From TrEMBL:
Residues annotated as signal peptide: none
Key word Transmembrane present: yes
Record-linked PANTHER family: SENSOR HISTIDINE KINASE ENVZ, SENSOR PROTEIN CREC
E.C. code: 2.7.13.3
Record's protein name: histidine kinase
Amino acid sequence: MVARVWPDSLFRRLAIILFAGLLAAHVLSFGLVALNVFGPSNESSDDYFMRYIATAVAILDRVKPEERPAWLDRLGRPTYRYVIRDGGEIETAPPKRRQENLARLRAMVGEGHDAKTVFYLDPLNRRRLGWLLHLKDGTPLMLEFTARRTVSSPWLPTALAVQLCLLAFFTWVAVKLATQPLARLERAANSLGSDLRREPLPEDGPKEVARAAAAFNAMQRRIAEQAVERIQILAGISRRLQTPITRMRLRADFLGDRDVREKLQGDLQEMQTLVKEGLTLARGRDEIGKQRCQTDLHALIDSIVCDYSDAGKPLRFSGERGVTILTHPQGLRRILINLIDNGLKFGEDVEVAIDTQPSNRIAITVSDRGPGIPDEHLKSVFLPFYRVEASRNRETGGTGLGLAIAQQLVSALRGTLTLANRDGGGLEARLEFSR
Ligand SMILES: Nc1ncnc2c1ncn2[C@@H]1O[C@H](COP(=O)(O)OP(=O)(O)OP(=O)(O)O)[C@@H](O)[C@H]1O
Ligand SMILES: [Mg+2]
């Protein structure tokens, strides 16, 4: 239950904690103020009140009886009033607090006023509690309480609502400020995968954020340096291997035994491919990221299909004409060739198709009618040198790097490559790019 209510994003969690904390503090301080204003009166305010009454009684004692009605209005307050009349039923056993108040009133107004608490009926016929006193000349004086003490501030709910909105707004600003650098870091880490030479993060803002950005930039620099170093080593090895391999191939031509010669030539050919492919895999991502241009997709695929037809390997091709895409044509060509090669090598009836649905994405599918790939291998085949069955590949040859290279180029082009087995047999490789 708690897990369901407790949001999983840091933004929402922080917002809830901050807002709840501020709201609690707000309610608490408002409650304290309200208690002071609306709550039970304390001794000092009671004293103040008694002093008022004593003053009023002293004034009424001194003015002429015919002038008293005019004074009554002046002496009254919004919450109580004075009336010259006899009270109702006298309270015989008042509670302790009222007894104390009565004693204080008696002490305040002085002897001979005979103050009592009495019940009377108000104009709406409700039983209310008041005080009955007698002026010096014996005139009865009732003190009637008209209403509870209130604070008449019609703007109070509006002020509270405005405060609440301000709380919510500043909570949002604070949380946004705290989580924005994290989002920036996440974006940077994500794009690091496809572009090691991306712009470094700005190292400004609060100290902690600047330090995290500086650490991230340093990490990016180290990774980029290491990658460059590895590529240089690999490129060096492959370049140096090319010469001895070529030399060995030349020497192999002079071998007398035809069978041995052909086997050796096959092995050397495989080594050469391996060296070349390994280099492509190491370089792939690096070369592709930057140089992209608007490319006519139909024209590009059509030229590949023609090359295959010329080599006696006909393919089927369907798709809308005139669709352009921002890509690295050489890289995309390489991806498609790797996928088509697999289709031709492991299956038959290979078809390439362009799918422009939905409008903001472009998909290219390469499908065949071959044995497909068992579901448990569908992910692993993207690993370098991973091949499904040794027996299947012995006839077909290859290094096991085709899909790894394709996958790497696709991610450098910010697309996706997925494999799926088709109904009725065969494999469908689906490339997707956003336009
Ligand atoms: N269309 C396909 N049908 C059936 N199996 C496939 C298909 N494409 C790939 N595979 C399987 O996935 C494995 C990995 O493919 P990948 O292209 O990476 O290597 P490869 O084709 O064996 O060698 P390379 O492409 O380097 O010449 C293949 O060995 C094969 O077992
Ligand atoms: Mg392959």
